[in-house]
Amino acid sequence: MLINVDRFKKTMEQVNEIAVTSEGGVNRLALTDEDLQARQLLKAWMDEEDMAFRFDDAGNMYGTLEGSDPDQPSVCVGSHLDTQPNGGKYDGALGVLSGLEVIRTIRENNITTRRSIELINWTNEEGARFEPPLIGSGLVAGIFEKDWVHNLQDRNGIRFKDELVRIGYLGDESNRLNNAHAYLEMHIEQGPVLEKEGFPTGLVTGILGIKWFDITITGQADHAGPSPMSSRCDALMSTANILMKLKEHILNYGDPIVVTVGQISASPGTTNIIPGQVKFTVDLRHYTEKGLENLEKEMIEIIDAVCSKEGTSYEIAKLWSNPPTKFDDNIINTVEEAFKESNVPVFKITSGAGHDAKYISDIIPTGMLFVKSIGGKSHCPEEHSTYEDMGQAIQVLLSSVLKLAQ
Ligand SMILES: [Zn+2]
User: Fold this and answer.
1) Among 57, 178, 184, 317, which residue's CB has the most CB atoms within a 10 Å radius?
2) How far is the CA of 149 from the centre of ligand 1 (A)?
3) Per-residue pLDDT tens for 348-371?
4) Distance from residue 341's CA to the centre of ligand 1 (Å)
5) Residue 73: pLDDT band by 50, 70, 90 thresholds?
6) C-alpha 103 to ligand 1 mean position (Å)
């Protein structure tokens, strides 16, 4: 049974004709008229496949292709149709429309699976209009409260709930997804690894956990001229030393462990004064809880060693953390079999970014597939994946769904 890449391509192109930006990106912010147009297309395509349709209190859309044993928990496939303001054509849409292609293939081959198959479009995955991201899947997974979600406002003070009502997508809480057998999400990688390693698609085993810190290094401000180098207590030079050592340490771990210092400021911040204090942020990511704890400890050791050597002092404040996600072993094994059955080489990869699958994996056995991103670019008009690669991945998705639904 083969999926139809041409049909899938046409479907993607139809959705991406909506709200094209002058730079060739797409602008389908959540719960806007453009989002509604994409939703209407999806709804019409679900109708064509005789799928039962419902939406819940976050506006998440569900189309169900009934199985021969509809009382069994369903197999779900989904992602999101919303985009960044000048986003790419594949982020999100690939996951929803590849699920549609799987259903079309199953239907045209007159196959009835034992379990029902649900196709899902999660609301406001991007968080570009209503912050934070992953709102629809987060509500379903119990991460967010309903009232809190409904009262979120965009930059113009427009409420999430009012926009749901305006576009006709405020549904009932009882329509939320519950008790499914499996959830599968296909997504573009948004990074360079698959391209570098030469694989069209990747089997995602989990999502990196994150720890954020605010760090302050304190030295002694002094005149830039009369103070000899040997007698200084320079907070910025200490920081530079810390950052180089931290980078080396993380490089020794190898992929996919990463560290990022995204903000830094020195004070008093004048050309001819030795910086007395430096503040910077650290974003640490690892795929296991223990690994993340070790990274934190090792970072503190590095800071402590540099500061005691150089006579500076430090303060570390924990800002935020998000635990790693480990996808379900049974799902991973099933998808791995599907790779082999589809003659697609298996490459296991960890996701560095969050996806709806992250929250859904808290309540349903979950797995993910990545498709190679050309140049690793995403959230921009240059975002690109080939239909050849997407086609191979959808073939794996079809095989996975059939295995899980029988
Ligand atoms: Zn996405």
Assistant:
1) 184
2) 19
3) 999 999 999 999 999 999 999 999
4) 27
5) very high
6) 21
- The single-letter DSSP state of residue 73 is P
Which value, in Å, is the radius of gyration of the alpha carbons in the chain? 24
Contact, 223 vs 281, CB < 8 A? no
Q: How many CB atoms lie within 10 A of CB 214?
A: 15
**Whether the predicted pLDDT of 123 surpasses 90:** yes
Q: For residue 33, which of 225, 167, 192, 226 has the smallest C-alpha distance?
A: 167
Model confidence pLDDT, tens digit, residues 146-168: 999 999 999 999 999 999 999 99
378 Cα: distance to centroid of ligand 1 (angstroms): 9
Task: Quote the mean pLDDT of the chain.
Answer: 97
Decide the pairing of beta strands 75-80 and 117-122: parallel
Q: Is the bond leading into 132 cis (omega within 30 degrees of zero)? A: yes
Ligand 1 mean position to 355 CA, how many Å? 6
CA 70–ligand 1 middle distance (angstroms): 30
Residue 178's pLDDT is 86
Mean pLDDT of 11-31: 96
**SS (HEC) of 154-219:** CCCCCEHHHHHHHCCCCCCHHHCCCCCCEEEEEEECCCCHHHHHCCCEEEEEEECEEEEEEEEEEC
